[in-house]
Amino acid sequence: MERPILWIHGEALGPANPALQAHPDRPAVFVFDAELLAGRSPTTGDPAGGAPQAVSLKRIGFLYECLLELPVSLRHGDVAAEVLAFARAHGADGIVTSAGTDPRVEAIGKALEQELPVEVLEPEPFVQLDGRVDLGRFSRYWRRAEREVWANWSPQQ
To answer: Would you say residue 95 has pLDDT above 80?
Structure first.
């Protein structure tokens, strides 16, 4: 790919995003997923097996604040359609994104691949945890990760 666009999703909202690191000069887009925001998710349900729920206003605010720190265009709607429209508008020959654990991210990536090549870059792990990690709720994940994060932290960082 010579002229990719970057698809930034909710699992890599920081300057260490591998797509942003690999292609700092390329246009990037984040799409607020209309179905997910409304609590409709045909791709995945709640990790506990229940019906998906609408994203809270607090979560939307958190996403928005993170995005304000990134060189990214914001859109709203069907993620695959909006990313492809952004790619066409920029004459892109492919899409670069970061890997995610959410099956919805993978499904959207497969939909994008129907139109353009997609390169998925692996992010540096935030923390190394042994065994299965429950990503269904941030609080459960954080209870396990917090000890490792603070054990390696120093004020100079």
So the answer is: yes
